[in-house]
Amino acid sequence: EKFDIVKKWGINTYKCTKQLISERFGRGSRTVDLELETQIELLRETKRKYECVLQLARAFTNHFYSLVQTQHALGDAFADLSQKSPELQEEFGYNAETQKLLCKNGETLLGAVNFFVSSINTLVNKTMEDTLMTVKQYETARLEYDAYRTDLEELSMGPRDASTLCRLDAAQSQFQSHKDKYEKLRADVAIKLKFLEENKIKVMHKQLLLFHNAISAYFAGNQQQLEQTLKQFNIKLKTPGAEKPSWLEEQ
Hints:
Substrate Binding Domain Of Dnak, Chain:A, Domain 2; 251 residues; mainly alpha; 5 helices; two-stranded antiparallel sheet
């Protein structure tokens, strides 16, 4: 039984390798679904661009986290000097309060940006990747389908003796099996691409609105609007003692 499995695997590998080489050198015909392959290439390009956005958003989070930590330390230093410098108590005091307020607003913005990063990461590395895994299965099935189609065509053009007719029947059966598999996966990919596009639009509409509102409110110094943005998107901040990198929990 193991020998038969290995034998089948070897024959399949040989046929697929032969087909692949033939295609690359322009000698073999290749089944092409132009509409589907255009959508697949668009998905791969979109994924690359979203990965770039994800990388930049993570860099922003790391840099901004360092800024907030520095503001926190600076506020503590001002507060300490306010207690120990009577002649500058008021000046150190309001600077300490300013840094504490900036730190608080910064922590709130970090909560929003971390939520944005988490959502984009899920979209790129789970949702898109899941669809691309099905695409890889489809591409393998397409190669196998063409390999067995070519094999059947070559046998059909040969002599029709008893031995050949037996091999032709076997080739026809294998071809039909791989054709069914190819067509099923092609349909699966088409459905997944459709649902992925709908999901992407829904997710990005929400996340881009969140990112814009949170960034705008923070740099406008609008604390109330910043906090309202987190409530709008159901983002709950962790306590300030939480460890890096996340300041949030999704409800």
